[in-house]
């Protein structure tokens, strides 16, 4: 569906250098999967992408390490429910497939990425490890790890004053890459 939507934008004449992708948690996973499909189909890449706290490993509930270490700290994403989510999302497909587990993808040729996470969430290492892989592949990467906030913190503007700054950083990154 994400690929169909992106193709529709291109078919309608939208300039891909004026398109950006963003998603949080499972949405971040979808963004990373879409980037792989765009590359595979040899479509032009969008201007940039912003995966926020993306799920990048769908096959192992307790790996990367932050999932086990922070399982009792993250009030938004309890690790106990992650295995059920993984099974529902992946169905019978191989969870090591990079479209399901972007941690294993070839990052070559991706557009600039801005990754955000919190040091208190179970998906911290999903984000950090992907950022490392993308940088090693020559992708322009910005990684911000915010202290003491839960998973998906940019969604909770009414609860955390830091959200305003995080959102301003995202908008600034997007504007830079849309010019």
Helix content: 40-55%
The helix/strand order is HEHEHHEHEH
Instruction: Please state the average pLDDT score.
Output: 87
Classify the beta-strand content into a percent band. 5-15%
By secondary-structure content and strand pairing, the structural class works out as alpha/beta
DSSP E strands, number: 4
Uncertain segments: none
In what order do the strands lie side by side in the largest sheet? 1-2-3-4
The first-to-last residue Cα distance is 28 Å
Number of helices: 6
How does this structure look, described?
This protein has 179 residues and is α/β, with parallel strands linked by helices. The protein has helices at residues 2-11, 26-40, 65-69, 79-90, 124-136, 162-178, and strands at 20-24, 48-52, 113-118, 141-146. It has a 4-stranded parallel sheet with strand order 1-2-3-4, sandwiched between helices. The longest helix has 17 residues, at 162-178. The model has no long low-confidence stretch (mean pLDDT 87).
Layout of SSEs?
Layout: H1 2-11, E1 20-24, H2 26-40, E2 48-52, H3 65-69, H4 79-90, E3 113-118, H5 124-136, E4 141-146, H6 162-178
Parallel strand pairs: 1-2, 2-3, 3-4
């Amino acid at each position: 569906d994400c690929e169909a939507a992106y193709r529709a934008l291109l078919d309608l004449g939208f300039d891909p250098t004026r398109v950006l992708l963003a998603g949080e948690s499972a949405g971040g996973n979808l963004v990373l999967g879409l980037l792989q499909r765009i590359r595979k189909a040899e479509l032009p890449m969008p201007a940039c992408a912003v995966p926020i706290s993306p799920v990048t490993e769908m096959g192992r509930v307790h790996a990367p390490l932050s999932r086990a270490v922070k399982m009792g700290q993250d009030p938004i994403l309890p690790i106990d429910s992650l295995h059920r989510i993984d099974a529902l999302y992946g169905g019978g497909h191989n969870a090591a497939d990079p479209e399901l587990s972007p941690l294993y993808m070839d990052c070559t040729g991706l557009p600039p990425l801005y990754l955000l996470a919190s040091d208190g969430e179970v998906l911290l290492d999903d984000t950090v490890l992907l950022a490392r892989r993308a940088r090693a592949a020559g992708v322009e990467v910005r990684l911000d790890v915010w202290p003491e906030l839960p998973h998906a913190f940019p969604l909770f503007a009414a609860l955390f004053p830091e959200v305003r700054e995080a959102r301003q950083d995202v908008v600034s990154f997007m504007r830079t890459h849309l010019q």
